[in-house]
Model the fold of this input.
Amino acid sequence: MSPDEKASCNPDDRADGLEVQGMQASTWVIAAGRNRVPGAPLNVPPVLASNFYLPSDRLYSRTNGTETTDALEEIIGGLDGGRALVFGSGMGAAAAVLDGLPVGSTIALSADPYHGVAGLADQGVEQGRWSVERIDMADTAAWVDAAGRVDLLWLESPANPLLTVADLPTICAAPRKAGNLIAVDSTFATPFVQQPLAMGADLVMHSATKFIGGHSDLLAGALVMTDDDLYEKLAYRRLLAGASIGGLEAFLAVRGARTLALRMATAQDNAMELARRLDAHGEITTVRYPGLPSHPTHAAAASFMNGFGAVMSFDVAGPGERADQVCQAAELINHATSLGGVESTMERRATIAGQETMPPTLIRFSVGCEDVDDIWADLEQAVKHTA
Ligand SMILES: *Cc1c(COP(=O)(O)O)cnc(C)c1O
Done:
């Protein structure tokens, strides 16, 4: 598919059942990015070459990507309704956006963003490159106000690890300062759960390390946009910063993405059921999952998300050490950071650098695709073990 065809996905067509170029998105994610020519391999191979025979438009993989990165970009771009650029990590993608801002820019950032993004923003402030105001993701009026004033709105929704959901349709439709950008870190949601470009955002960012890759075996990031000038600008930043993805990682990300629809459906169903059960458990004090009516941003989430994602956080009764013990006592659920894999993971967030202000007993739980009753049995035994 040519870049022009990629750009032709019309965001206006994407409000209802998620379709990509006349097929369901769940079909697209399997069908896209293939070279349907007799004799060509069914799966795009991992192209492990930095340079290519000339004359050709494809010179060097940092400059032009490869057949493998093209496939990944076609898949992700189609899902989000725009043109995708893939990066060596989610942070590589985030840095490309921030580093492209003119000196003196103003940024509105979520109050508790991903700690790496917070670090980038803070460093730029120290260097006098831009100013940053922090806004609670749930404070829709403040975001709407910021849309009329600042140069970059960086929203993360659902946000890490309180699962706050921003009212994206309202914020993205707000009157805007001319030329500014609304970027949404949609890592926790994936394109199957929310469509920020269709709501009026300019940029979607994913850490494809998480759900899109889906197997905790690679680092990858993506930016998706519909504006061609923005695409060219960010592609050039990626080239200059050397933030390209490796051939093997791109291959693994394509392979992982093939099952994204299946994995999200299973993981979300599991998460909803486990959130309900945890909510009713006597030793669990708080469950934060946007699918629960008790979540502060449930109404916003229910108004535009297709499901509620597969990440939640909960508190165990007792001191912070008990949360560590629960994570250690788990036998099926993996005691590990990160999220979005087929395997369930959990960790006590307050022990993570930059997250010390989180409630001490908060456990972030990324629900995988194991059988829901097996996951539940493990949670029950781990909590009981530490009673
Ligand atoms: C993991 C993550 C990132 C950073 O992505 P990497 O692939 O680890 O560089 C950014 N935002 C969110 C919400 C994340 O979970």
